[in-house]
Amino acid sequence: MLTDAHCHPFDLKDHISLSDQQFNVLAAASSCDLEEFLYIEELAKTSFTKRIQPCFAIHPQMPAFYRNKEKHEANFNEGTAKLQKKLELLERLAEEKRIAAVGECGFDLFNADYKETETVQDGIFSAHLEIVLRYNLPVVLHVRRAIHKIFANIKKLCKCNTVIFHSWSGTYEEASSLLRRGINAYFSFGNAITLDHKKAIRSCALLPADRLLFETDAPFQPARGKTFSQWTDLIRIIETAASLHGKNPKELEKIIENNFLKVFMQSLEEI
To answer: How much is the average pLDDT of 89-114?
Structure first.
């Protein structure tokens, strides 16, 4: 069965109606506020897919979103309070066993606006890992221009039962180093491997299949010529990855399905 290790159904609904999304897939669905989470949780109950796994976290871009420079410190303080409430919500969802993983969280230092919130991102990441460890949950990481932050947190990440690198953008050597250092890591790839992203292609080709996951990041990672990604993209993604590994697509699909079940097994019921 095809699997999607990272997607955003709440945002995908703005592009495709539910009736047009009929697709048999196991999916881990990300959310970062209560409205998104409740939508995903309801979708999981009535899902046309085989199984939707709800996930929740504070996206690392959110501190910059709240830090509106026109309103300066007053708005930043208001944003800090909102972030704290999201952490409290995450704690409650974890305690109530309503999430399959904490994610996506991590670091984003892509531009100056995000870099201005680096210290805030550090604090939020630490708070996420405390919850991850307290409830023994997998964690899904968003890491952009910030791989040094991951290596700086090696000791904490080694304590996590599973670490999933969403849309892995590091090198094969960095991925191998994380595994050698003791992180139980999985590396997720999406349409980047179909778009001639050489670093992603090389990493996907050289990493062992039992450390891979695939994703759409729907609707945010479109294939060439498309305006959004969706679950049907998984077919081409896995065909591309299979050719990189010299495997039959169905053979690789089964390996990845087993990886997905292993990663999210804490909340998955028998399928």
So the answer is: 97
